[in-house]
Amino acid sequence: MDRAVVLIKPDGIQRGIIGEVVKRFEQKGLHLVGLKMISLTDSILDEWYAHHKDKPFFRSLKEYMMQYPVVAMLWEGIDAAKTIRLMLGPTLGRTAAPGTIRGDFAMSQQYNLVHASEDEAAAKKEESLIFKENEIFPWEKLDLPLIYSDEEMK
Ligand code: CMP
């Protein structure tokens, strides 16, 4: 199974959408194997957003991400990152389709409520920045045979 890290960002915490986000991913059939609240630090964010370090919004992005804690989650599923990013919608919230999380709750480019790993490689890096080994729980999800076919599970 693939993994993806999701952060409910400080604006998402303030907007009270933690339950809504978890509900959507659970309903989809994704498998929650890690969940914690954490205050992101300058050094975590330097690594997390290394690919944005030369962007003009880098400093304000880091300040925003440290303003309040975030809720970090680790989700498993086939094509987890791709699936979750479809459910989030594009970065600019006001262009996101209704039915997506940003489409239903966001207007902004920066304040777009939720982050999800871009791909498997990003997920691995983000997982290691946030979760210790004993904070990951690969419990047996009994309805997986109803979510995926045997062929897909191979
Ligand atoms: P995300 O795509 O999760 O990760 C990078 C974040 O940078 C993005 O969400 C936004 O929160 C933020 N971001 C992207 N583009 C801009 C921008 N032009 N101005 C301010 N913030 C931005």
Structural summary, described in words:
The chain is an alpha+beta fold and 154 residues long. It has one domain (2-153): Alpha-Beta Plaits (2-Layer Sandwich). The protein is 43% helix and 17% strand. It has 9 helices and 4 strands. The protein has helices at residues 10-15, 18-28, 42-48, 58-66, 80-88, 101-105, 120-130, 144-147, 150-153; strands at residues 2-8, 31-38, 70-77, 114-116. A 4-stranded antiparallel sheet has the order 2-3-1-4, with helices on both faces. The longest helix is centred in the N-terminal third of the chain and has 11 residues, at 18-28. The protein starts with a strand and ends with a helix. The structure holds adenosine-3',5'-cyclic-monophosphate. The site of adenosine-3',5'-cyclic-monophosphate has 7 residues, from loops. Adenosine-3',5'-cyclic-monophosphate is lined by residues 57, 61, 91, 109-110, 112, 115.
- Choose one word for the global shape: globular
Number of helices: 9
The CA-CA distance between the termini, in Å, is 10 Å
CATH-level-4 superfamily name? Nucleoside diphosphate kinase-like domain
What are the SSEs and their pairings?
Layout: E1 2-8, H1 10-15, H2 18-28, E2 31-38, H3 42-48, H4 58-66, E3 70-77, H5 80-88, H6 101-105, E4 114-116, H7 120-130, H8 144-147, H9 150-153
Antiparallel strand pairs: 1-3, 1-4, 2-3
